[in-house]
Amino acid sequence: MALRYALMAALHEAPATGYELTQRFRSRLANVWNASHQQVYRELGRLLEQNKLLVETVEQSDRPDKKRYHLTLSGRKDLQEWLSKPQSRPPVRDPLLVKLFAGDLLSSDALKRDLEKTKQDWLAQLGYFRSIEHTYFRQPENLSRHYRLQYMALRHGVTQITAGLEWIKELEATLADLDKTP
Question: Do residues 66 and 60 lie in contact, with contact meaning Cβ atoms separated by under 8 Å?
């Protein structure tokens, strides 16, 4: 999936400045797509060139004017066409899994350090997802279809991390068992 469709989906929800879009990617879209400030602005420029967006200048007396982006009819059509086509899942590229494939060359202590770091990273990510859930999705059963589906995207991230943490427990038990055998 290209960043363009993540941006157009965000703009479908509401027009926004580049800064506001970057903030959405760091908050509500954190488990859906990751993009830097520079990537967002670069792609906004491309979408403008392709007439997928309109830009509205918002005057500010105390700061430089803001540019607020809106989807054009062409942009909305492009997004709808992309949405209607099944997409392939992204390939798995996980260095930890590669380490397991050659794990006999790695000490148990080194692997345990990797697992502990992964666990801490996932726990932090889970905490962040829970804060998004608390901020935006307190009563999901009362949400509109639009936001209920966004909530389900967040739930995907939560369940993936939860399953990953369970897998780490299983791997830790396997390592403990392997360390007992000569």
Answer: yes
